[in-house]
Design brief:
The complex is a heterodimer.
Chain A lengths: L1 H13 L3 H20 L6 H23 L7 H18 L3 H9 L4
Helix pairs in contact in A: 2-3
Chain B lengths: L4 H5 L24 H30 L9 H30 L3 H31 L13 H32 L5 H26 L7
Classes of the chains: A mainly alpha, B mainly alpha.
Chain lengths: 107, 219
């Protein structure tokens, strides 16, 4: 366990703070862009797609750099991420039905 | 941990860096402390909870032709954008706290962690202000003056669950900061609390555009 802790501390202590500031600036810029996008009058489905994509990019940056997963052992990433992403992706199967409800509703 | 018995069972078993067989139970396949791994497992389960709610909300949002768009640019969208910036900045200060903890700088750790907690408090205050505004306009769980009745249920459930996480996070960070200052907690505890805080930030990165921007009042 001591080796584990030492490895973890060495990874953090050696890391430069500069990428963290770049990531923060990127996240702020994306947030500003999202707010700008809200007033461009895009179709709802298109807006939802773009906003989801931007949110996933922001989430990936937070997980990789702020949560340090980029610097962890690959074993950890492969244990945590694929199953979670698969479960979340499976939830997307409901979306076509919501669009069907909207398109085929009585007018 | 278990050191010698694997040599009896299989003397040729490969050894890890600590000189223990990987089959002995003493090796750490993820090279992270168990508390950190435990927090990651919690984050995975909690992210599936939030995903279910967010996808359920998106389903209703897409399928409802008369979804309310009550959020004016001023004050609601500006307020929510400021809340987002506050959370992002609090994540930055949390990273700086973890960095200071790994360098053993106790005073800086406490300072950065309390600043992070302050970010959480500001976020909560702004959000409660938003809630009160909507409630005063007649928004309830299953009715509102504008359109699809599920708007209130979706808004209050998603943002309420998130606000609960933020509030718990503020208490958690304060306890860890004080404990670290007194020598009760280690830099690993600071890092684990940071994981939780970044996750709270991450969830808001989905809630802000989906809840606020998709319901912004446009001309």
């Amino acid at each position: 366990m001591e080796t584990t802790q030492a490895a973890s501390e060495a990874a953090h202590a050696g890391a430069s703070k500069r990428p963290i500031y770049y990531v923060w600036i990127t996240l702020v810029v994306i947030t500003g862009f999202e707010t700008f996008l809200a007033y461009q009058g895009l179709e709802l489905k298109v807006m939802l797609g773009i906003l989801m994509t931007l949110s996933i990019i922001k989430a990936s940056l937070i997980v990789a750099y702020f949560m340090h997963l980029r610097y962890e052992r690959r074993n950890l990433v492969l244990t945590l991420m694929p199953a979670m992403l698969w479960v979340i992706a499976m939830l997307f199967m409901f979306f076509p039905d919501s669009i069907r409800l909207y398109e085929l509703r009585p007018k | 941990m278990a050191g010698g018995h694997e040599a009896i069972g299989n003397p040729a078993a490969p050894l890890d860096a600590a000189g223990e067989s990987v089959w002995s139970g003493g090796a750490s396949p993820y090279a992270v402390p168990s508390k950190k791994f435990g927090m990651w497992l919690f984050i995975v389960s909690d992210s599936i909870t939030f995903s279910s709610l967010i996808i359920a909300y998106s389903y209703v949002r897409l399928a409802s032709p008369h979804w309310p768009r009550p959020f004016e640019f001023w004050p609601s969208i500006v307020n929510a954008t400021v809340m987002t910036l506050v959370l992002l900045t609090s994540s930055l200060t949390m990273v700086l706290a973890v960095h200071a903890a790994k360098h053993g700088d106790r005073n800086r750790v406490v300072r950065w962690m309390l600043l992070t907690g302050l970010g959480g408090v500001i976020f909560d205050v702004l959000h409660i202000h938003e809630w009160i505004g909507l409630i005063e306009h007649g928004v309830r769980l299953f009715k509102n003056p504008w359109g699809a009745p599920l708007f209130g249920a979706a808004f209050f459930t998603l943002t309420g669950l998130h606000m609960t996480h933020v509030t718990i996070g503020v208490v958690y960070l304060t306890v860890v900061a004080i404990g670290f200052k007194r020598g009760k907690y280690t830099s690993d505890d600071v890092e684990v609390s940071g994981l939780y805080w970044h996750f709270v930030d991450l969830v808001w990165m989905f809630l802000f555009p989906l809840i606020y921007l998709l319901s912004a009042k446009t001309a």
